[in-house]
Amino acid sequence: MKSIIWGENVLQLYVIRHGETEWNKEKRSQGRLDSALTVKGIEDARSLGERLKDTEFCQIISSPSGRTLETATLVKRERQIPLTTDDRLMEIDLGHWQGKTDSDVREQFPESYDAYWNEPEAFAGEGGETFLQVQERLLEFLEDLQRKFKEGNVLIVTHGVVIKTLYLLCRDASIKQLWDPPFIHGTSLTILTIENGKKELHLEACISHCS
To answer: Where are the active-site residues found (predicted)?
Structure first.
């Protein structure tokens, strides 16, 4: 993928989700906890690095979680691109769910589990965050980013719920629509531009590089 020239005063964000992890395979809630990338997760991240090798980035900003940092490093390869972290890009804090399998969460927290998937605007969190809180910290991050970078390509490495929340901000949609398509697969690539505060999606959750 060659660098796309959008014009002056246009900020381009290349947003990727971390590669598949062992807990993803086990359908185990990660949130602020962590697990190692699988062989597929590593291979897909390397493939994405190859896909983006000709795209010039002025900065890479990653969630500080191990799975995102490892993904960022694999995508970056040997290139000399500044890599920093930002806590506001961390996955939703899932509180008491973290470390539990999907079936365990469904059994132990049936009402909040149902809200999480079917009424996200009503999800109150189980000792963690709400989706609104994720949205608020992401919006703050984007506002700070626009003050720092007026134009150029910035690579963002983050998590599924954060990216779904980003879609809502781009579409000016409500949290009710959080789980609308597309699905955010591991190392999926989303590209958006920000110009004069307007966010526009150009590529959504692309996994053409994945095995």
So the answer is: 18 (tele-phosphohistidine intermediate), 91 (proton donor/acceptor)
